[in-house]
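pasting for ref
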Amino acid sequence: MVLLVNNAWKGTGVGRYIDSIFKIFIKEKKDIEMLYIKNSRDYGEKNKLIKIMEGPFPKAEINNYFYFPRKIPKGENLYHITNETIGRCCSSKPSVGSCMDLIPFLYPSNYNKSTLFFRKRQLAGLKKAEKVIAISENTKKDFIKITKTAKEKVEVVYLGVDTSIFKKRDKEKSRKTLGLPQDKNIIIHVGRDEPRKNVAGLIKIFPGCGKDTILLKVGNLSEQSRILARKLGVEKRIIEMSPKDSLMPIVYSSADVFVFPSFYEGFGLPILEAMACGVPVVASNTSSIPEVVENSGIMHSPQDITGLSESIKSIFNSKSLSNSISKKGLLRASVFTWEKCAKKTWEVYEGVMK
């Protein structure tokens, strides 16, 4: 049997990834179960094939490092350790480990010493897996560079999007459902406000996009970002929201353009979700983002405030351009399916189990 060892509840990016392929494996009657190692939050769904192990310590890093690796049941055919924050669980053999990103090692100043201490050792644990799955070519490159791992040991398996859920919906109806104005241009950004996401850059872009523009920010702004918005006089045109997952396709569909000016992403799942909903994408040209967007959106350097702003205005002002990018995005999103992700992941499993 394959045991998925997972610490991410299904509402997170990692959680959606694991939940999606797990359900496909179950549908295909694969011999698989999940061990959800719980620190504080419930997984979000009950399933007889999901076993739960709770950590005894209040701090997740302590449980992930000292407790869970010693408590994983022995004797399975394969263990899939689902992300780098629990890399030491790769001591269960044979194992496959997924690497989502290397953010703490590329932006160490954004993390405290304790987090860096544990993450370095967890990454060293992940390196001991028989195979490592990277979710983009850029993540593979970073993993090889930072861990000095042979490239043959790392397989790229792209994430997917469920186009039966994330699909184009009527913009007017979507705005009505959310109580948003019909007569404004709406920019949407999805993600946490942390330095690598370049939300400050997004707020600087905003004033140049016209006074009839609203920024719909899914995920709360930091206090620093709020101060910047006040300074630039745009705070009253920013709407913050944290909707339920079930509402996200409607939230995307309410927007005229999805803007994602990140400095670094391990993959960029919100880009894929926006494209699947037919929303034109303007994004940065860094890290994994060009792999996802390819020629289906407009990309600039994340520091190019003028270029990003001009591209957004071009989409607002040209229906033909907006429709063209939307169609390209829908086609591009259709390439990334959870079925493909599951198929390639199982092929990695089989290669290790041979």
